[in-house]
Structure formats: C-alpha cells, structure tokens
TrEMBL record:
One Pfam family it belongs to: Acetyltransf_1
Residues in N-acetyltransferase domain copies: 67-217
InterPro entries tied to this protein: Acyl_CoA_acyltransferase, Glycosyl_Hydrolase_84, GNAT_dom
An example Gene Ontology molecular-function term: acyltransferase activity, transferring groups other than amino-acyl groups
Protein's name according to its UniProt entry: N-acetyltransferase domain-containing protein
Organism: Phlebiopsis gigantea (strain 11061_1 CR5-6)
PANTHER family in the cross-refs: O-GLCNACASE, PROTEIN O-GLCNACASE
Length: 217
C-alpha cells in the first residue's frame, strides 16, 4: 500500500494542553531552549528547561495552555508546539514554590562551584526569580510559546497565541498579557512585534507585552 499523499494526511490542529502532554512539553522546551535552537548539547539533565518553563502550566491550578498536534507524527502523540500561560502569575509562583519545585529540589540538589547550563537551571529551581512587578502590574497573565522547527513560519504561532488571547479575554476578563524572552533571540522579538507586542523597557530583562485591543485575529 502506498503512503498517503499530502492531501490525504490528517491536518495539524490545536487543542487544550493536558497533564498527559508533559513529555512532549518537556521535549519541545529542550529543543528550543537555546535562543530558539536546541539546548540538548548543553544539558546533562534535559528535563530541566521543561520543569521550569513548560510542564507546570499543564499541572498547576492557575496554569493552562494549548498544543499544536500533527497526527502524522508518531512521537509524543503528535504534539509539535505549545502556547502556555497563567491568568495569575503571583499565584502560580506560590504554587510552584509550594507544590511543584520541592520534589525536583530533592532530585537536583545544589552543586557547589558548578557553572554549566544544567547547574544554572538547578539554581533556578532552588531560587526562582519573581516576575517583575511592572510586568504583573500591566497584567497578571503571562505566557510561553515554543514550536518545533518544522512547524515554524506557517502561521501556527499566531494561531496558538490567539487561543491564549481569547481564553484570557473572554473567559478571564483580562485586557493583556506579557512574556519574557531571551534577548539573543532576535527572530522571536520580530515575530512578537509583528503580532502587536511592545517592548517594556522599564522591566528588567527582555519583556514584551500585548494589549488585547491591539490583537487582530
């Protein structure tokens, strides 16, 4: 039997993220964690980026998200991208400290004198920085988005963010959200700018914000 033609293959689609997506979220976070490129070579414990920036949003009460699924992909149930967020950043921070990080802190104790990427992430698990007050004052909601390379530049990023916007606006009554980004990732900054995100120079680090009034479906 011949392989299905492109027209016969099931099309990718977006659905709500669930806790069962954790392995996929972890993998996608790792292969995009080095300013949009794979960080697999930088970590001896490849699950660490996802433990910080992806998986909690599928497990904690104030976390939520959406995943991009390609049924033609056998790995990780076809999940090839995600947009994750929270409508209450400060509550998420409390939940991370009380419920999410403790078992991972036991698994990954602090190592004195270490300076590689893995140990930098271990230090973040033990002492995660709080979100900037100025960003939370703009909106209690923040987000993360990552898509594997083969599915980028096809409009999926905007569609995933659109799902977050509609949920936060229509279900939670919010007027905006923000995100932090790696300042080395110039392509990400250009992408967010095209969608209406604006820089927040008063925030420490690289932060961009979106007023939902500027969002165009």
């Amino acid at each position: 039997m011949s392989d299905p033609t492109p027209a016969q293959r099931p099309a990718p689609y977006i659905r709500r993220a669930t806790a069962a997506d954790s392995p996929a979220l972890s993998h996608i976070c790792l292969v995009t964690a080095d300013a949009g490129s794979s960080a697999e070579a930088l970590h001896t414990a490849g699950e660490l980026p996802g433990l910080l920036y992806a998986e909690p949003y599928a497990h904690l009460p104030t976390g939520f998200g959406f995943v991009l699924v390609d049924p033609a992909q056998p790995a990780f149930a076809g999940v090839v991208g995600y947009a994750l967020g929270t409508w209450d950043t400060r509550q998420l921070e409390r939940d991370l400290d009380a419920a999410w990080f403790p078992p991972h802190r036991e698994r990954y104790p602090l190592a004195a004198g270490a300076a590689d990427a893995t140990d930098a992430f271990v230090r973040l698990i033990h002492a995660p920085p709080a979100a900037p007050d100025v960003a939370v004052a703009f909106s209690p909601a923040h987000m993360h988005i990552d898509i594997t390379a083969a599915y980028q530049r096809q409009g999926w990023g905007k569609k995933l963010i659109g799902e977050l916007v509609r949920f936060l606006r229509d279900e939670k009554g919010l007027e905006g959200l923000w995100l932090g980004l790696d300042p080395r990732n110039s392509n990400a900054k250009k992408f967010y700018s095209r969608l209406g995100f604006k820089g927040m120079p008063e925030a420490p680090g690289a932060v961009m914000s979106l007023n939902f009034a500027d969002w165009k479906d």
